[in-house]
Amino acid sequence: MDLSRFRRDYLKGGLSRSSLAPEPVRQFTTWFEQARAAEIAEPTAMVLATVDANGQPSQRAVLLKYYDDSGLVFFTNYESRKAREMAVNPRVSLLFLWLELERQVRISGIASRISAVESARYFMTRPKDSQVAAWVSSQSHALSSRRMLLQKFQEMKRKIGEGKVPLPSFWGGYRVRPEEVEFWQGRKNRLHDRFLYTRRDGGGDWKIERLAP
């Protein structure tokens, strides 16, 4: 199928050096709040890229649950493919794609597990059925049928009853500490605006550069 004529121009805005915040978390917050205001369906959705021991990359969408100056946090099963790959190579990439605003944010950094206490604090905010689901899903492993999965889910619900759902030892959060953050704004004639924040010497200061589109 020839898609060479399938194109559109980007006309919704621009990005200048003078408008940028001095550090990427503040700039990300501005864009994220604008994405929420635009009522984008899943503004917290981000593509997580990992690499296995053989150098094979893989990608999947995960949800950002919170962030601050120390990094961006998401949650998963510690036996999932992404968790196994991060154990081998903690260098990851995140991508937020907000097409309605003609924007994307790319983040490269180091992933590490958060503490069990921090994971439990978030786990208790999840709906109870979602807590139960964390117990019954052997994420990324082969499953004989959906019927079997639902059967395990109902059995676990009966077992727990009205009690609290404990945090599974095989489930928790990761924090990605950014080393590079790129903000991309679509522009007319493919002359897009791109600005790259790079952490200086592993510290808290950031260098900002405009990149060619």
TrEMBL record:
<feature type="binding site">
    <location>
        <begin position="139"/>
        <end position="140"/>
    </location>
    <ligand>
        <name>FMN</name>
    </ligand>
</feature>
<feature type="binding site">
    <location>
        <position position="122"/>
    </location>
    <ligand>
        <name>substrate</name>
    </ligand>
</feature>
<comment type="similarity">
    <text>Belongs to the pyridoxamine 5'-phosphate oxidase family.</text>
</comment>
<protein>
    <recommendedName>
        <fullName>Pyridoxamine 5'-phosphate oxidase</fullName>
        <ecNumber>1.4.3.5</ecNumber>
    </recommendedName>
</protein>
<feature type="binding site">
    <location>
        <position position="194"/>
    </location>
    <ligand>
        <name>FMN</name>
    </ligand>
</feature>
<dbReference type="GO" id="GO:0008615">
    <property type="term" value="P:pyridoxine biosynthetic process"/>
</dbReference>
<feature type="binding site">
    <location>
        <position position="126"/>
    </location>
    <ligand>
        <name>substrate</name>
    </ligand>
</feature>
<feature type="binding site">
    <location>
        <position position="81"/>
    </location>
    <ligand>
        <name>FMN</name>
    </ligand>
</feature>
<feature type="domain" description="Pyridoxamine 5'-phosphate oxidase N-terminal">
    <location>
        <begin position="33"/>
        <end position="156"/>
    </location>
</feature>
<keyword id="KW-0560">Oxidoreductase</keyword>
<keyword id="KW-0285">Flavoprotein</keyword>
<dbReference type="Pfam" id="PF10590">
    <property type="entry name" value="PNP_phzG_C"/>
</dbReference>
<feature type="binding site">
    <location>
        <begin position="75"/>
        <end position="76"/>
    </location>
    <ligand>
        <name>FMN</name>
    </ligand>
</feature>
<dbReference type="InterPro" id="IPR019576">
    <property type="entry name" value="Pyridoxamine_oxidase_dimer_C"/>
</dbReference>
<feature type="binding site">
    <location>
        <position position="65"/>
    </location>
    <ligand>
        <name>substrate</name>
    </ligand>
</feature>
<dbReference type="InterPro" id="IPR019740">
    <property type="entry name" value="Pyridox_Oxase_CS"/>
</dbReference>
<dbReference type="GO" id="GO:0010181">
    <property type="term" value="F:FMN binding"/>
</dbReference>
<dbReference type="InterPro" id="IPR011576">
    <property type="entry name" value="Pyridox_Oxase_N"/>
</dbReference>
<feature type="binding site">
    <location>
        <position position="82"/>
    </location>
    <ligand>
        <name>FMN</name>
    </ligand>
</feature>
<feature type="domain" description="Pyridoxine 5'-phosphate oxidase dimerisation C-terminal">
    <location>
        <begin position="171"/>
        <end position="213"/>
    </location>
</feature>
<dbReference type="Pfam" id="PF01243">
    <property type="entry name" value="PNPOx_N"/>
</dbReference>
<keyword id="KW-0288">FMN</keyword>
<dbReference type="InterPro" id="IPR000659">
    <property type="entry name" value="Pyridox_Oxase"/>
</dbReference>
<feature type="binding site">
    <location>
        <position position="104"/>
    </location>
    <ligand>
        <name>FMN</name>
    </ligand>
</feature>
<feature type="binding site">
    <location>
        <begin position="60"/>
        <end position="65"/>
    </location>
    <ligand>
        <name>FMN</name>
    </ligand>
</feature>
<dbReference type="GO" id="GO:0004733">
    <property type="term" value="F:pyridoxamine phosphate oxidase activity"/>
</dbReference>
<dbReference type="InterPro" id="IPR012349">
    <property type="entry name" value="Split_barrel_FMN-bd"/>
</dbReference>
<feature type="binding site">
    <location>
        <position position="184"/>
    </location>
    <ligand>
        <name>FMN</name>
    </ligand>
</feature>
<feature type="binding site">
    <location>
        <position position="130"/>
    </location>
    <ligand>
        <name>substrate</name>
    </ligand>
</feature>
<feature type="binding site">
    <location>
        <begin position="190"/>
        <end position="192"/>
    </location>
    <ligand>
        <name>substrate</name>
    </ligand>
</feature>
<feature type="binding site">
    <location>
        <begin position="7"/>
        <end position="10"/>
    </location>
    <ligand>
        <name>substrate</name>
    </ligand>
</feature>
